[in-house]
TrEMBL record:
Family: Belongs to the sulfatase family.
One Pfam family, short name: Sulfatase
Protein name: Putative arylsulfatase D
Cofactor annotation: Ca(2+)
Domain Sulfatase N-terminal: 1-98
GO molecular function ontology, one term from the record: arylsulfatase activity
Domain of life: Eukaryota
Organism: Penaeus vannamei
Taxonomic lineage from the root: Eukaryota, Metazoa, Ecdysozoa, Arthropoda, Crustacea
Entry-linked PANTHER family: ARYLSULFATASE FAMILY MEMBER, SULFATASE N-TERMINAL DOMAIN-CONTAINING PROTEIN
Length: 333
């Protein structure tokens, strides 16, 4: 990774565009504590912060590096301790590139209130951000909230992962990962854990539920959450169809030549379970398709070769044809 990032930075400098390019290096989660290989931890380490990858509320799962570089515009070698969020990326880049706010870019869309905050002033001039709240999700579930109350940063946990005894992780093994829902978490909605992150950043000492401080903070956080839910409608799920969640390297032009080219006809031979494609890039045959995979002319087949002279039925190309790959055959590529 270090060599790859270095190669990108070197290329920007060689092409003399490093002063006109914003580089933002970050991660979407903390270290994968459960991952091991030959007895050695390979998924990273989160220091004294508890938890890791797959955990929506634990500090070890959500504290990640955020490194900006913009030659001539941002001071080099400066460390800023202000907590930020990946949600800040869009408003920050819009302001840094002198683009108007998102509502001005897309006036045909309803006006919307972004969760993110622009970091432009913080990064270029050191202008401090106003105290802010952050909501930590694990998928669609809200696992934790943080809020500045009377100058101190508090965090309230509404869910807690069921870690292995004596640890802050869920077992061992590269395929192990703490679950965000169901039996993998303990619901704390009605009995939340609260931490004073200003004085207890590693979340070692939950504030007693018998204290006035606890109920004061819980009340403020619950009020904030209710106000947030009232103004932020949940969008329709983009992951109901499993095919939408899968990487599809077989759809790339360099994997299958006829993708991106003009298709003149599709032929199907039900007896041999084959589908043939004729395009401006040549002719190909997909073999060994199951009968139901012909429905809707969805090409999911595993192997290609130049077609022979076999008799096949010619089917006109359909404009709404969907190209996909049977997930059960992913390991056959």
């Amino acid at each position: 990774m270090d060599a790859g990032v270095g190669a990108i930075l070197d290329a920007l400098e060689q092409h003399e565009i490093d002063d006109n390019t914003i580089v933002y290096f970050l991660s979407d989660h903390g270290g994968h504590l459960e991952a091991i290989d030959k007895g050695q931890r390979t998924g990273g380490h989160n220091g004294l912060f508890k938890g890791g990858k797959g955990m929506g509320g634990a500090e070890g799962g959500i504290r990640v590096p955020g490194i900006f570089k913009w030659k001539g515009h941002m001071p080099a070698g400066k460390t800023i301790d202000t907590p930020t969020s990946l949600l800040d990326t869009l408003p920050t880049l819009l302001e840094l590139t002198d683009l108007p706010p998102v509502n001005s870019l897309f006036p045909e869309l309803p006006e919307r209130d972004l969760d993110g905050t622009s970091l432009a002033g913080l990064l270029t001039e050191g202008t401090a951000l106003k105290p802010r709240s952050l909501i930590h999700h694990c998928r669609q579930a809200i696992h934790a909230l943080r809020l500045v109350v009377e100058g101190r940063v508090y965090k309230m946990h509404l869910a807690k992962h069921k870690w292995s005894p004596g640890s802050t992780q869920c077992g061992w093994g590269s395929n192990n990962l703490c679950s965000c829902f169901g039996d993998g978490v303990e619901d704390l909605t009605f009995d939340p854990e609260v931490y004073d992150l200003t004085n207890d950043p590693y979340e070692d000492k939950p504030i007693s539920s018998e204290s006035t401080e606890y109920w004061h903070v819980v009340g403020a956080l619950r009020q904030f959450l209710a106000e947030w839910k009232a103004r932020v409608p949940y969008p329709p799920s983009q992951f109901k169809n499993k095919m939408d969640t899968m990487l599809s390297p077989w759809l790339q032009p360099f994997r299958i030549p006829f993708f991106g080219s003009e298709i003149s006809e599709v032929s199907s031979d039900y007896s041999n379970e084959n589908i043939g494609i004729t395009s401006s890039e040549g002719a190909y045959v997909f073999e060994e398709l199951e009968e139901e995979e012909f429905q809707g002319l969805m090409v999911v087949g595993p192997y290609m070769h130049e077609p022979d002279d076999a008799d096949v039925e010619v089917v006109p190309n359909q404009p709404d044809m969907e190209w996909r790959r049977d997930p059960k055959r992913l390991n056959e590529w």
